[in-house]
Give the backbone structure.
Amino acid sequence: MNSGSTSIEPLNGEVAEKFIGGSGYAAWIIYRETPMDIDPLDPSNKLVFMTGPLTGTITPSAGRYVVCALSPLTGIWAESHAAGYWGPELKFAGFDGVIVEGRSEKSVYLWIHESGCEIRDAKHLWGLDTYSCEDALKKELGLDIRVASIGPAGENLVKYANIINDRGRAAGRCGLGAVMGSKNLKAIAVKGSVKLIPAAEEDKLASYVKKLYVTIRSHPTVQIYSSYGTDGIMSMMYEYGDVPIKHFTEGVWSGIENISGEVMAKKVLKRNWACFRCPIACGRIVEVKDGSYKMEEGMGPEYETVASLGALCLNDDIEAIVKANELCNKYGVDTITTGVSIAFLMECCDRGLISREVNGLRIEWGNPNLILKLIRKIAFREGIGAFLAEGVRKMSETMGEEAKQIAMHVKGLEVPMHDPRAFKGMGLQYATSHRGACHLRGEVFIIEQGERIPDLGIHERVYRFDLETKPRVVKIMQDWHDVLDSLILCKFAFIPPAAVAAILSMVVGRHITVKELTEVGERIYNLKRIIDVKRGVTAKDDSLPYRLLKEPLKNGGAAGQVVELEKMLSKYYELRGWDGDGVPSRERLIQLGLKGVAEEDLEF
Ligand code: SF4
């Protein structure tokens, strides 16, 4: 971006063998090429967009891409995945990924097509929201292009700005939209001419995929996602005590019945929406016809958004939540961090840590109009919005010990909408996830609800409050999820690991086993950990907010529970081969094929 030039690098086959693609391949690039002592908004923070070997093939639910860099919100490893059509289109243009380096002097966008990549002036796009930016680029370049762009939040370097494609699909977490904004890069538009990426054994894959559709559609959770979107799990998760209410302080709330997937279907749903070649179609196209929250047809909220801008802030108006989701998407901010930051502010007011009247607004629970106003203020860094735009760790650090104690984050990433007091393995997962508190880097709560995955050696039913079984299960699931995030496959499809290995074998034309894949997953997990260690992470950072460790809820499905993290952590380190400070041992790195990393010579 400094010189306004582009170049094409061939994919490194050896790296692809060792790290698959997606976030694994990106981790290798960032480990080798990004200086580890920089501010994440420095031009030298490389921003890597990657697809995987399955992207654009006939594999179901494989239409995703990932964006990776050092996070301006957490300071450590960041990866954020988005669904839709942008990833496959990049492959159809002939590219596996895009590495953005440096900072342009003026605002620009990238136009990627089969002949290469052009850096173009984006003066006319700067200031537009993500939907308008997509519309403008389609008018300019053709209706069939795909666009990933930032909104005002990314331009204003909001620490949790995101990247939006397909009018509402988000690479949401960790603030990678701010990294894009720091490079003065407004958007990446892509267009290819092929319609599918052929597999090495295309006919065999086609008949395999036909049968796999039946397996996918028969999974009970998939059926919920198809019928009611991801918010379809709201009522069930509430019964477990998993849905955080009033900033993780309540276990019971009557408003929950107004924000379920079923209510969304009845009140605002127009139709389902599917990503590239996905038989599930968990996306919701919604419309609010009239009233204060009127909204034209557009992408509806996910479970995480409904919980964070709803239950967490005691807002039970589904139409207002739908509107808040639209605002977050258009401005380009992560809905989870937005909701947690607003709820943190509300609790600080209750405790007298901050004035209840700010910028002419009265900060109070359950006020949908307040939430909508705050979202705008965050995106434009107006008044109190500039404070909220930093995320809860930074906010709490300026307010003293009491505020720090109630700040709901791990390593700077706000806790998502699954309370680990309801699923204790999730507590260990949040504490050790390489991007901070993340429900998607392992999804252990699925196992804690009774799912078994014999292909990965999880044969037994795992009780949600049990501690003994969790270190092993968390490690297995984290490693497997790094496989999924490198291929890249949507986790909502629950494709059995043996089927994943079979598909990859047919795509690349050589036999690959689940065991090989899990070894690669562990290698990737450790490489990302090494990046975190280089950024200063130690065992003391593998922790949870005080509230989750020490404050049991009085009521609800997880009443009386806290996360006994210490009882799980040392066993987890032992299984991982990490020392007492949480650093991967030299021996384990060598076993995992990372001898060069162990010796810091920037080779394998
Ligand atoms: S399950 Fe949902 S998010 Fe995943 S690929 Fe399908 S439509 Fe997209």
